[in-house]
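Query form — protein Mycothiol system anti-sigma-R factor

QUESTION: What is the three-dimensional structure of this chain?
INPUT:
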Amino acid sequence: MSCGGPHNIDCRKVLDAVFLYLDGECNDPQQHLIRAHLDECSPCLREFGVEHEVKMLVARKCGGERAPDSLRLSVLARLRAARTGADATEFRPD
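ANSWER: The structure tokens for Mycothiol system anti-sigma-R factor are given below.
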């Protein structure tokens, strides 16, 4: 996805990192870059809004239940491994 406008960060990279941003898993420079992009890019902001609403709906319907730490760590490790395989271990603005 791209809005066609010039940005410091490609729209696709921002949208790929939206859940990391929502979960507070980005470092400060990454958060600032993503927030700045969302502030200037309406299509990405709309997509971000949809993602945010889905996340809030899931949180509301799950009643605040939390997975056991061992399961959480296992899932995070598998996600990191999958990202590594796709060369997306962390959000990079380039």
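ADDITIONAL NOTE: The chain has a mean pLDDT of 78.
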